[in-house]
Specification:
The protein is mostly helical. It has 20 helices and no strands.
């Protein structure tokens, strides 16, 4: 029994990390590379092609309530199996598409499947299995970032091997997603193991919190489990929600618009693309670093640093046309994006406990659907003002406001007996209402 307790969490971590790497590399990072071949063969215009990408992101964010509901009702393993089927169905639609409707359906299914296989079930299991959650999340998120970096390279290699037949690429991804999804579902263990592991983890964290902290930095961890209704009535929840929204808004907009912005300011396309790659590398470094120190340093300080970095990076990007300013933009937005996601994830658990974190985190992920508007807002500003500079300055101001709120944020105080069980709305119903 002891042997199972020791190696099962690491198997789960490796399995979920491999899964996140794969689906990140084969969806968001791949579609943009494959689209030109699809457009050329099918005769679409780029407005139609771009709408599919928008559907991918919107369905991913808007469906974040679904895995939470399924996990509560049928367990993590069954949810992963359903998510694997949905993702495979999306790849299948893309592989046989001969019209826009199948393309749109495939993109939408991939968005829903991504959410059912990625962050929500992953963070739920890892939070139960690991006492050092920042370390586990750092490893997990880092593999997701590596998938974003490796995705375009994998697409190019597979397309070359299949003689530029993009339908074969999607068929290969369908097979790989099924194999890795089944592997991950097998490795995570039963619901009984997950419940026992969660109880052991919470007991260990409670004992650690009650022990003397001589010579150590005390990290706040709630000893109580907040309900969803209680959590959403605190300002801390909305500060963390805003921080999650801000990091996605900046990250998506920088990825989509920074090359065009730099080229307009006189930077060569090669340098502009290189800066975006460097920005992705800084995101990986940020997540790795935050994972290593996140259990020794209050995650609130990591969040503050991330917001400072994103604000500075966005401002630098708005006026960048020299190497120092471009390096500042790439380092700032990259590190900020990488650190913010991890710090928000850990703070939600530390502030509100793990029992209802599945629903609380899924509500936070819903904001991802709105962050997809960043490039659209930037494009509108470009058309109206003639350049992207005001857009990046606007987003810098937004993250700056969130930074001020985070500076004054302190752990929430739960009001005793504020609600009774008879008048509490169930977490699942709250998620359904939010959806």
């Amino acid at each position: 029994m002891m042997k199972t307790i020791e190696y099962r969490p690491w198997l789960a971590l490796c399995s979920f990390s491999l899964l996140l790497f794969l689906i990140t590399a084969s969806t968001f990072s791949a579609l943009g590379v494959v689209l030109p071949s699809m457009v050329a063969e099918e005769g679409w215009n780029w407005t139609q092609a771009g709408f599919g990408f928008t559907l991918l992101g919107a369905c991913c964010g808007a469906s974040s309530f679904l895995p939470a509901l399924l996990i509560r009702r049928i367990g993590v393993r069954s949810t992963l199996l359903i998510g694997t089927a949905v993702m495979a169905g999306g790849f299948f639609c893309l592989s046989i598409t001969h019209g826009l409707m199948l393309y749109f359906l495939g993109a939408a299914l991939c968005g829903v499947g991504y959410q059912m296989m990625a962050l929500i079930p992953g963070t739920h299991v890892l939070a139960a299995a690991f006492k050092r959650r920042a370390m586990a999340f750092g490893f997990y998120f880092t593999f997701g970032s590596l998938g974003g970096v490796a995705g375009p390279l994998l697409v190019l290699a597979l397309m070359k091997a299949s003689h530029e037949h993009w339908r074969e690429y999607w068929s290969i991804q369908m097979g790989v997603s099924i194999a890795v999804g089944l592997l991950c579902a097998f490795m995570i263990g039963s619901s009984k193991w997950l419940a026992e592991s969660s109880a052991r983890t919470e007991d260990a964290l409670t004992a650690e919190a009650e022990a003397p902290q001589t010579g150590k930095v005390r990290i706040y961890r709630s000893r109580e489990s907040w309900t969803v209704r209680e959590a959403v009535r605190t300002p801390q929840f909305y500060i963390l929600l805003a921080a999650y929204f801000g990091h996605l808004l900046v990250g998506i907009t920088v990825a989509g618009l920074s090359p065009a912005h730099l080229v307009q300011r006189g930077v060569s396309a090669t340098v502009a693309g290189s800066m975006l790659s460097f920005e992705s590398l800084m995101g990986i470094v940020g997540r790795m670093g935050a994972g290593l120190i996140g259990d020794r340093l209050d995650p609130r300080y990591l969040l503050i640093f991330a917001l400072v970095a994103m604000t500075a990076g966005s401002l630098a990007l708005s006026v960048a046309d020299t190497y120092p300013m471009m390096l500042l933009y790439a380092a700032g937005t990259g590190l900020g994006f990488g650190i913010a996601a991890l710090s928000v994830t850990v703070l939600l658990i530390n502030y509100f406990g793990r029992e209802h974190n599945l629903e609380i985190f899924s509500m936070t992920c819903l904001i991802g659907a709105l962050s997809a508007l960043g490039p659209a807002i930037g494009g509108w500003i470009r058309d109206d003002f003639g350049n992207f500079t005001p857009a990046f300055q606007l987003f810098a101001a937004m993250t700056g406001i969130i930074l001020v709120a985070a500076l004054f944020m302190r752990p929430p105080i739960r009001r005793a007996a504020a609600y009774t069980e008879t008048n509490e709305t169930s977490a699942a119903k709250l998620i359904e209402e939010a959806a």
